[in-house]
Amino acid sequence: MISVKLDNVGLAYRLYEKLTLTAPDRRLGGLGGKIGRSGGKQVVQALEDVSFELKAGDRLGLVGPNGAGKTTLLKVLYGIYQPSAGTVSIEGKVDALFNINIGFRPEATGRRNIVLRGLISGWTEAEIQEKMPEIIAFSELGDFIDVPFKTYSQGMAARLAFSAATALDPEILLMDEWIGAGDAQFQEKAKRRMDELAEKAGIIVLATHNESLLESVCTKRMTLKNGKVESFITKPTKKVGTRAKT
Ligand SMILES: Nc1ncnc2c1ncn2[C@@H]1O[C@H](COP(=O)(O)OP(=O)(O)OP(=O)(O)O)[C@@H](O)[C@H]1O
């Protein structure tokens, strides 16, 4: 059973620089987590008391101002960060597209990176090899698939990341502003694949400032502010897979 459940999750980043704030615990603006002290150390409280539950078929849009904690939450869901408080329970294979360079080895070729990424996400070597031709074709990288990843342009890296992450039918797909890096033709193609993915009963968590993408993909919307959940809305009449008018 595919599911995501967070109970009172908190995450504090340690600040190693010595800050000379006039009032260390005072909020200075609407952006970012709260700067304070925890266990005698200076920290940014990027997430605080975050609780929500998702089940198969849910597509959650994460919104909120810069520094609200969206990327941090994606990293917690992907297992890059352990929460400093609360619990995270995830059932299902997770793949992520929130920093196209995450999980890629610079020295390895595109092809090898597809394998490594698939293995990390819980797929078998045989499953990955079966999908390999489709992944390469979708990326349109041609001969560059056998060239080291470190030589790729940003858009080429985005093509590899998107093709690999979506071809393996992730049960849970975490995404950030992935679409911006590819060229217009690839973005259009990527949007179509997103629609197909949205039709399948997985879970998608998409952090974005792009309202039309959010409208087209998501059935739920969570607003974060200063690391806290400000609202969690289920859209009542969402037509799944509707393409955005941009
Ligand atoms: N490595 C880090 N060390 C210290 N603080 C960090 C670190 N990464 C993020 N933060 C802080 O955590 C808070 C949340 O950042 P996060 O990147 O999760 O925000 P976001 O909602 O994704 O923002 P944006 O919309 O700008 O991408 C911010 O206050 C940021 O300064």
UniProtKB/TrEMBL annotation:
It holds the Pfam family ABC_tran. This is ABC transporter ATP-binding protein. CDD domains: ABC_KpsT_Wzt. PROSITE patterns: ABC_TRANSPORTER_1, ABC_TRANSPORTER_2. InterPro entries: AAA+_ATPase, ABC_transporter-like_ATP-bd, ABC_transporter-like_CS, ABC_transpr_TagH-like, Bact_Polysacc_Export_ATP-bd, P-loop_NTPase. The keyword Transport applies. Keywords: ATP-binding, Nucleotide-binding, Transport. Belongs to the ABC transporter superfamily. GO terms for molecular function: ATP binding. The keyword RNA-binding does not apply. Residues 4-244 form the ABC transporter domain. It comes from the Bacteria.
